[in-house]
Specification:
The protein is an alpha/beta fold and 234 residues long. It has 8 helices and 5 strands. The chain has a 5-stranded parallel sheet with strand order 2-3-4-1-5, with helices on both faces. Helix 5 packs across helix 7 and helix 7 packs across helix 8. The longest helix is centred in the last third of the chain and has 18 residues. The two termini are 32 Å apart.
Length: 234
């Protein structure tokens, strides 16, 4: 008994440690172009490469794989304009992850130039391609215009199912094949929707002290947020 409710367990958010190695990345038609560009490094045509795609599509995972391979320093886009600690950002490769609609253009241009002057490489990740970023500095626009920008597209059924299994494995949960087979036709077809549902199912399973099964999935979907058309019963 916990929280005064018989039969339920208190849940604790221990955090999730995702598997971010190359072997853990799920290659599919929607992302194989991005993987090919990273595998091509260091034979890029210029200093920079941009990977863009929807939330949860694996941009940060790919960036981490490349960071480990290249020895790059990692920098969150929100910290782009912050003063760098002494001796940092001097590597021949740099990852700037999570560029959004509010970009410090001068800081990004300075970072690009510094990497290029060292003969290094810069990997940028964002939701949209640079052509859609609200940029006004001509020098930055011209540099990003010639940088390859590769998209991660929408997932197919096989990738959604495999992604669900991986996300559960990241939480040290094994699920039977019938679970993703039941889920995939019943949710919004996006990386973000799968990640959100996995989190909800994990919390529900912890709260009830039971494994993740199709009956549990059915009940969680019936509570809403299962997909664009609402819950569907089998």
């Amino acid at each position: 008994m916990a929280d005064g409710i018989p039969g339920r367990q208190r849940t604790f958010d221990w955090g999730v440690r995702p598997a971010l190695g190359r072997e853990a990345f799920l290659v599919a038609p929607c992302n194989e172009a991005a993987v090919a560009w990273l595998d091509r490094w260091p034979d890029w045509p210029g200093p920079a490469l941009v990977i863009h795609g929807p939330p949860g599509s694996g941009k940060s995972h790919l960036a981490e794989v490349w960071r480990r391979r290249s020895g790059a320093e990692a920098l969150d886009a929100t910290a782009l304009a912050q003063p760098a600690p002494a001796g940092s950002r001097g590597a021949a490769a740099l990852v700037v992850d999570g560029l959004g609609q509010r970009i410090d253009e001068r800081a990004l241009l300075h970072t690009y130039n510094a990497v290029a002057e060292r003969g290094g490489h810069l990997l940028l990740t964002a939701l949209t391609p640079p052509a859609r970023w609200p940029l006004s500095l001509p020098d930055l626009v011209s540099r990003l215009r010639v940088a390859p920008a590769v998209a991660i597209g929408l997932p197919d059924d096989a990738l959604l199912a495999a992604l669900m299994v991986k996300l559960f494995a990241d939480r040290q949960i094994a699920v039977a094949p019938e679970v993703p087979a039941y889920v995939v036709p019943r949710i919004e077809r996006s990386f973000e929707a799968v990640a959100h549902l996995v989190e909800r199912l994990d919390r529900a399973a912890l709260a009830e002290g039971r494994p993740v099964t199709v009956p549990l999935v059915r009940r969680v979907l019936a509570l809403g947020e299962g997909g664009p058309d609402g819950p569907t019963e089998a």
